[in-house]
Write a structure and sequence with these properties.
With 480 residues, the protein is mainly alpha-helical. It has one domain: Growth Hormone, Chain: A (Up-down Bundle). It has 18 helices and six strands. The strands form three sheets. Strands 1-2 form a two-stranded antiparallel sheet. It has a two-stranded parallel sheet with strand order 3-6. The chain is globular, with a radius of gyration of 25 Å.
Length: 480
């Protein structure tokens, strides 16, 4: 589909034309808001498998499945949040900014409340002994499993966190992009750099989550380790409110979802209608035609959405590879984690994935891209979104091949040392063996994630920008 779709009539209508609003002074506030949310949310994930196994007596396979479904629900709900934003409330609500400061406080509170409440409930599961199974009997060595009520409280907290994350994540990057002046002739260049810096900033916040939060959980326990993310979620809302009077905001004029339904209904009702060459022009432009059940813009929006589905589904295999974090964490526990006289926490292993992603994005945007532009003679002479998506799909093949080799060596070493029946035994094998596959996955994500976002933005009209971000966030990982 042609990029000119983005120039058509938009559903999100600018509400504030004040040139003093928006711009570079508001973008950092939104990015910081997102960064705090990432630190709070992602800080829960690395060690959560140990929390489920040690505190709730769950098997490794069951715990990994629960965490996968939690992650899938968080990302899958981003599509719901995106449709809600672009169709009914607008990012003015999901990323609240109103002319009335009390309204801003209310809407921001309404948005962050599910995520914040979920983190509070999760923290309470560590604080209140009755919300966890009792300690194992030291004499009989028997352990009680978690009750249905205890698991219900745990899953309810996960669900609330997913609801909050599903509304915040797709709206944040799109709302930040709205702060850019559309009349700027260099808007495309600024937007592409913004995507890179946005991902680099959130990458750094993920590094903090995988190091600082994991360190707190390992050394200060779960009571403190679960309280810190809840506090950070509070600061996430606070940082957004700091610039509440400076944001460029928009309001919705129609529902995208309703428009999609109208297109399908119109196509079904008129499926047997015979049109002559003279009547086609009449029906296309006439406002009085019986065929005016939907607009051309609605048809083009639905075509754009259907057109990206093949590219979107390619993310299935990509995220099968990326959602194996729990297994790598369990592997790391059984290996020598001393690196340069420092014991690397098992939950911090994926920090190397994020470091690779961040370093590559910075290198690509500041060094490689200018060189490619000089070579090709184009202002943005880098790789096209489809090429980057393709590279991102090929690199995990090598990563998982390396993972299979490493696991074969680890198992063989464990059997040679007589540790096959000791799940808590430490194999005389450095955890560094796990890093090459993880680094390759970080490189794959760097290629794929930016390519996905730019591709969707190039195909969708402005009114569907939040949906574009939601598709890149959700992918079909929740279908696996």
């Amino acid at each position: 589909m042609e990029n000119t779709i983005a120039e058509e009539t938009m559903v999100l209508i600018p509400k504030d034309k004040d040139q003093k609003r928006g711009g570079l002074r508001t973008m950092p506030l939104i990015i910081v808001n997102e960064a705090f949310e990432r630190v709070a949310s992602y800080g829960l994930m690395p060690n959560m498998i140990f929390y489920l196994m040690n505190n709730y007596r769950l098997e490794a396979a069951n715990g990994s499945t629960i965490l996968f479904l939690w992650s899938a629900m968080s990302n899958g709900l981003s599509i719901f949040g995106a449709f809600l934003s672009d169709s009914f409330m607008g990012r003015i609500i999901l990323e609240p900014s109103c002319e009335s400061f009390p309204a801003i406080i209310f809407t921001e509170f309404l948005l962050c409340w599910p995520c914040f409440e979920g983190m509070i409930l999760l923290w309470l599961t560590a604080m209140i002994p009755q919300l966890q199974p009792p300690p194992c009997d030291r004499f009989t060595d028997t352990c009680s499993s978690a009750t249905a009520g205890q698991l219900a409280m745990l899953f309810f907290s996960f669900g609330l966190i997913s609801i909050g994350a599903g509304c915040i994540r797709p709206c944040s990057i799109a709302f930040d992009a709205d702060q850019d002046n559309e009349e700027n002739p260099n808007n495309e260049s600024v937007l592409q750099s913004f995507f890179n810096w946005y991902n680099a900033a959130t990458g750094l916040s993920t590094i903090i989550a995988f190091t600082v939060i994991v360190y707190i959980q390992d050394n200060l326990g779960w009571k403190v380790g679960l309280a810190v993310p809840a506090i950070l979620m509070f600061f996430s809302a606070l940082m957004f409110l700091v610039g509440s009077y400076q944001y460029i905001i928009g309001k919705t004029s129609s529902s995208l979802f309703t428009g999609f339904v109208q297109v399908v209904v119109a196509a079904f009702r008129n499926r047997k209608l015979n049109l002559s060459h003279s009547s086609i022009e009449q029906y296309y432009h006439s406002d009085d035609s019986e065929l005016q059940l939907c607009t051309v813009d609605q048809v083009e929006s639905l075509k754009a959405l259907l057109g990206v589905i093949p590219i979107w589904t390619t993310g299935i295999m990509m995220h099968i590879n990326l959602n194996q974090n729990s297994f790598a964490t369990l592997q790391a526990v059984t290996m020598d984690r001393n690196i340069l006289n420092f014991e690397l926490p098992a939950g911090s292993l994926n920090v190397f994935l994020v470091l690779t992603l961040t370093i590559w994005l910075t290198f690509y945007d500041r060094i490689l891209l200018p060189l490619l532009a000089r070579f090709t003679g184009r202002p943005r002479g880098g790789l096209s979104p489809k090429v980057r998506i393709g590279i991102g799909l090929l690199v995990p093949v090598a990563a998982r091949a390396m993972s299979a080799v490493v696991e074969t060596i680890r198992r063989k070493t464990a059997m040679e040392e007589g540790l096959e029946d000791e799940p808590d035994g430490v194999v005389n094998m450095s955890v560094v063996w796990l890093l090459p596959p993880i680094i390759l996955l970080g490189l794959a994500e760097a290629f794929n994630s930016i390519g996905q976002i730019e591709f969707y933005y190039s195909q969708f009209p402005k009114s569907m920008s939040t949906i574009a971000v939601a598709l890149s966030l959700s992918e079909p990982r929740w279908l696996i």
